[in-house]
Amino acid sequence: MTPPAIVIIGGGPAGMSAAVAAATQGLSCTIIDEGFALGGQIYRKPTNPERAPAPHPRGEQLRAEVAKLAQQIQVRNGDNVWGIFDELRVAVTSPDQHTELLQPQALILAPGAHELVPPFPGWTLPGVMTPGAAQILIKTMGVAPGKRVLLAGTGPFLLAVACQLVDAGVHVVAVLEASSRPAWLSLPLHGFRTPEILAEGLAYLSKLDRAHVPVRYGRIVVAAQGETELNAVEHAPVDAEWFPDNNRIETEQVDTLLVGYGFVPRLQLAQMAGCNLELRPDVGGWIPIRDRNLATSVAGIFAAGDGAGVAGSLVAALEGQLAGMAAARFLGAIDEATFAAARDSIEQELARLKPLRRALDKISALQPGLMSLVRDDTIVCRCEEVTWREAREAVCAGSTTYRSLKMTSRAGMGACQGRFCWPFLSRLVAAEAKCSLADIGPPSARPPLGPITLGALAPEPRDK
Ligand SMILES: Cc1cc2nc3c(=O)[nH]c(=O)nc-3n(C[C@H](O)[C@H](O)[C@H](O)COP(=O)(O)OP(=O)(O)OC[C@H]3O[C@@H](n4cnc5c(N)ncnc54)[C@H](O)[C@@H]3O)c2cc1C
User: Fold this and answer.
1) Which pLDDT does position 459 carry in this prediction?
2) What is the mean pLDDT of the chain?
3) Is the CB of 266 under 6 A from ligand 1?
């Protein structure tokens, strides 16, 4: 079979928009996404449409645009990309464990982000989840994560999920936002060019108000309590650096706690592809370095969306369009003038979204007080059940990089390979060893990206 001109990894707003842009220029594209349908995180499709809420209209529109271009766009749902090798060779395994190496002429990375959760006493108890995990239960199956739910962390995503829980009939006890109320009240100053986004935020607040869900600013969860499962949460007011006032702790009886402090770009594909990286805590951490056309340092590889810096679904879709057009230009399907005109109009829209986004990033920037919650016996690496005492001893003995800490303490050695624990563990290590996050580095990534079977790696010959 002829390989597609472009392989796009990720079928969220960035990946779908990239495919539509490139296919409209006559190029053949393949979108690979591990999910059962296109949509990514925000436009996730229900598996149980009778119980789950109706899918997001913007997601439906993007799916329809992809479907209209079915002659050019092949969609491979349920398939997993677990390796990128030199000369743009992409290893992909389908659910029946059949593995293929695709070799397109250009590659667009649009893998999105995952959630950021700090370790704190009790955070591994059943009943403590991320807002995104709860949202997946509601969006796909219409299943509520619990009966009495508390949300805590920072950012507008908490409000969105709280509203979805209210719609699903869940008792939301409160939303605890770590940043101060005055910081949030300053947002309209930055969002006058994006009134539709401000209006969305206000609609969330007014829905929560009508449902009598208090949104409490300047508070964080300091501990989750329970023997075998969560039954209560302790929370406290914080200062400007999010250090809690432990004399003013309140306790809330709940069966579910959803904690999320933003998102971290899924970097591993770019790492495996050999792209140069930079540390940008303002957009979630380590990201591939890109030029104005979203080209990475590896010729023929472009990166778009949250996986290249967390900026939300609208930016992801615009970046996807730009990456699709840039790949079309790279392959000679459009001339420079056509590309430059498309880029100008996309950049104008990106510039319109920027001030509000920057202000939101600033308000939700992680503060050092969050690290003060970790006790010696707090598990910092869930996969390998490594406590902070064990990790700290390894740091004090000189293990201050991801690689050496992994070897000496096993932190980051488990199934997630540091994806989940490292964003916070690296901060704890930096504070303990008095070095910078850049010195510590990102977790390493090597194939296979996730667990795969031996059969997928070395299949038996089919025509024995
Ligand atoms: C759990 C979660 C829920 C979110 N919900 C919302 C929300 O309700 N509202 C909102 O405004 N923002 C939400 N966000 C943020 C939102 O995801 C983004 O702003 C936006 O969806 C980014 O679009 P994207 O195309 O860059 O990535 P995504 O939408 O995340 O799409 C990336 C896709 O790539 C797939 N993928 C990644 N790696 C591979 C691989 N190796 N092989 C195959 N497929 C792969 C992923 O499964 C995913 O489907 C959420 C984020 C997360 C993590």
Assistant:
1) 66
2) 94
3) yes
Sequence-separated (6 or more) residues with CB below 8 Å from residue 149 = 134, 165, 170, 171, 172, 173, 254, 255, 256, 257, 258
Domains annotated for the chain, with CATH where assigned, are 6-114+264-334 (3.50.50.60), 117-261 (3.50.50.60), 374-440 (1.10.10.1100)
Q: Do 309 and 270 touch, CB atoms closer than 8 A?
A: no
Q: Is the peptide bond before 49 cis (omega within 30 degrees of 0)?
A: no
Amino acid at 293: N
Q: Whose CA is nearest to atom 37 of ligand 1?
A: 111
Ligand 1 center to 286 CA (angstroms): 17
Q: How far is the CA of 113 from the centre of ligand 1 (A)?
A: 6
In this model, does residue 451 exceed pLDDT 80?
yes
Name the closest-CA residue to atom 51, ligand 1: 41
Expressed in angstroms and rounded, the spacing between residue 45 Cα and the centre of ligand 1 is: 12
Predicted TM-score (pTM) of this structure: 0.96
**Residue 102: phi, psi to the nearest 5?**
-95, 145
In short, whether 311's Cβ falls inside 6 Å of ligand 1 is: no
Residue nearest ligand 1's atom 30 by CA:
112
